[in-house]
Amino acid sequence: MLREIRPAIVLLLVLTAITGLAYPLAMTAIAGTLFPAQAQGSLIERDGKVVGSALIGQEFKEDKYFHGRPSATLAPDPNDSTKTVSAPYNAANSGGSNLGPTSKALADRLKEDVDKLKAENPNAAVPVDLVTTSASGLDPDISPEAAQFQVPRVAKARNMPEQAVNQLVAANVQGRLFGVLGEPRVNVLALNLALDRASAK
Amino acid sequence: MTMIGWLQIILFCVIIVALAKPLGGYMTRVFNGERTFMSPVLRPIEAAIYWVSGVDERREQHWLTYTVAMLLFHVGGFLIIYGVMRLQAMLPFNPADQSAVAPDLSFNTAISFITNTNWQNYGGESTVSYLVQMLGLTHQNFLSAATGIALAVALIRGFSRASVRTVGNFWGDVTRTTLYVLLPICVVYTLFLVWQGIPQTLGAYVDATTLEGAKQTIAVGPVASQVAIKMLGTNGGGFFNANAAHPFENPTALSNFVQMLSIFLIGAAMTNVFGRMVGNQRQGWAILAVMGVLFIAGVAVTYWAEANGTSIMHALGLTGGNMEGKEVRFGIVASSLFAVITTAASCGAVNAMHDSFTALGGMIPLINMQLGEIIIGGVGAGLYGMLLFVVLAIFVAGLMVGRTPEYVGKKIEAREVKMAMLAILVLPLMYLGWTAVGVVYPAAVASMANAGPHGFTEVLYAFTSATGNNGSAFAGLTGNTFFYNLTLASAMFVGRFFMIVPAMAIAGSLAAKKSIPPSAGTFPTTGGLFVGLVVGVILIIGGLTFFPALALGPIVEHLAMNAGNVF
């Protein structure tokens, strides 16, 4: 069995160099050449400044923007590094709420958010994705229903006709791939950028 | 549940079955050392690797030598990961200035990756450098996967050979699997993933100014190259904390669908490899059928439960299913399907938070792991786990008719049955035993995130996942504590190696036996009766072992939920 020791060391080092260095570094070089935008993180620039990534959700609180889903991401507490504080859409520390189906904390949070949304728009049913946190806390999308639900608020805040906002929403709906895969959705950042462009005209 | 949802599920199953045969054919040639269409490029590299490391790949090893070689290989892998994590602050490729990882967390992660578990007590983007991601984690994603496949091939050789003392050469099997199977697929796969939007860069995290003027730091990195192998090798350890739910690990419906396929791809093809190597592909299809029956049943329950939502949501008038902890682009069906796939295989990647699943929807992933991840299973590990159950099923069938049981030409005798039982019994000992400790030991109890039966399920899920080398979690549980780092590591270690050693002992003892031709009294192992028998044995053994624990966790939680209780 002694003769197994040399391969155990040398073969391990060789295969480690191939799979742990050569492979990821070569892929970085090739991918960076073929798909430079995606390889860097699909960043979106406006007026020369990075405003986010097309794939990563960001927090919207103002009435004039469409809001994304609630986010359960955390950040270290600036006052006590052993603790964490709520930091929605922290793209350097992804994660979900992990609250279970019989959690009182979840029940309370859902009720509060549903009540708030019902007050904002009493005429439509509250879409479930607008009150539930996503798995990553960085979900860039909402359902088309969740976008339509917010149209009255956004239109009012921007002094735009609801019909114009509705058209923007419709133009930003992405359907299922090949009509089968995934779910219909609206990218919130893309929609809000389109909204800003429309308002600027 | 919708028609379009079921269409996605059916499409997935059809593609997996269609790919099993061609990939199985290619892999069989690789394991037999025959020429393939990749040989002109890869054979010189392979030969150079053997020359440098002093390996003669044609020198056959006894099952014990094969196993010792595998264990030595893991010792080295452990040291590399542990070392790189402890020293990351001093090493290059660390643009986020991550400091040294704590000893207990490094230990847990090193065990986690060499056992193909990839349990994430580390936070990904918040804890480790790019060098750790590449040199520590990506490399072991390849090698632990290649090891699992090599071991399964050795066990298959036990069935397919006769009257010999050897089961193959571990070094040759691992090198060939890495070079001819894993790497070529990963190169193409990585480029596909980058095209879909996964970053692949060594640049630092990006600071963006959001439309509302806030600062958002966006973690990036060499993500795609790791995601490719983490899926294909059923490893599952994420680049990011949120794993495949993170938009940078799984940006689109298409990336999600292909990732699901890649989890099952090699495991499904291994059943075909088995059939080819024992000389009858129908033997392989029969095993795939057993897996398929259990898989579809699990998907149906989880999809139904998640689409149904929870009582809390119903009371508030929310419809559209349980979207807590799920991403909009995947929705209910792709999240449910992914959860069942990742636990049926021993992948453990998640595209939704299992902790927030409904009680019954989350119970299916738990059951999948408790059955030993034999429904497709980990690359290689799933097949040898399933073959242990086949040995038991054949034994039971033999008892019923009073004949010495045979399987693919080999007599199954006391030694094989004892070894199979040892492997199957040691696993519940680990997760039931540690769960019992975890729910009474005060320092462990503090880790639970949810109260009531759900907290118990979090602990049970953690130890089940660790023992099964899965790596998915009810992630509310705070795993990065001294207690959990060490106990989970022990569960992962035992779950991996106490399964491997008995399986290899069976390989050795079978290889030494004569091959007997089928006679009129041989129980046919390619038909529906055999499939039904194996499914039955799996469910009876699983049910007897786990039902009490499941009753305390998800089942009582489901009843409590319907009664309107919250905790």
From TrEMBL, chain A:
<comment type="similarity">
    <text>Belongs to the KdpC family.</text>
</comment>
<feature type="region of interest" description="Disordered">
    <location>
        <begin position="67"/>
        <end position="100"/>
    </location>
</feature>
<keyword id="KW-0633">Potassium transport</keyword>
<dbReference type="Pfam" id="PF02669">
    <property type="entry name" value="KdpC"/>
</dbReference>
<dbReference type="GO" id="GO:0005524">
    <property type="term" value="F:ATP binding"/>
</dbReference>
<keyword id="KW-1133">Transmembrane helix</keyword>
<keyword id="KW-0813">Transport</keyword>
<keyword id="KW-0406">Ion transport</keyword>
<keyword id="KW-1003">Cell membrane</keyword>
<dbReference type="InterPro" id="IPR003820">
    <property type="entry name" value="KdpC"/>
</dbReference>
<dbReference type="GO" id="GO:0008556">
    <property type="term" value="F:P-type potassium transmembrane transporter activity"/>
</dbReference>
<feature type="compositionally biased region" description="Polar residues">
    <location>
        <begin position="79"/>
        <end position="100"/>
    </location>
</feature>
<protein>
    <recommendedName>
        <fullName>Potassium-transporting ATPase KdpC subunit</fullName>
    </recommendedName>
</protein>
<keyword id="KW-0812">Transmembrane</keyword>
<keyword id="KW-0630">Potassium</keyword>
<keyword id="KW-0472">Membrane</keyword>
<dbReference type="GO" id="GO:0005886">
    <property type="term" value="C:plasma membrane"/>
</dbReference>
<keyword id="KW-0067">ATP-binding</keyword>
<comment type="function">
    <text>Part of the high-affinity ATP-driven potassium transport (or Kdp) system, which catalyzes the hydrolysis of ATP coupled with the electrogenic transport of potassium into the cytoplasm. This subunit acts as a catalytic chaperone that increases the ATP-binding affinity of the ATP-hydrolyzing subunit KdpB by the formation of a transient KdpB/KdpC/ATP ternary complex.</text>
</comment>
<comment type="subunit">
    <text>The system is composed of three essential subunits: KdpA, KdpB and KdpC.</text>
</comment>
<keyword id="KW-0547">Nucleotide-binding</keyword>
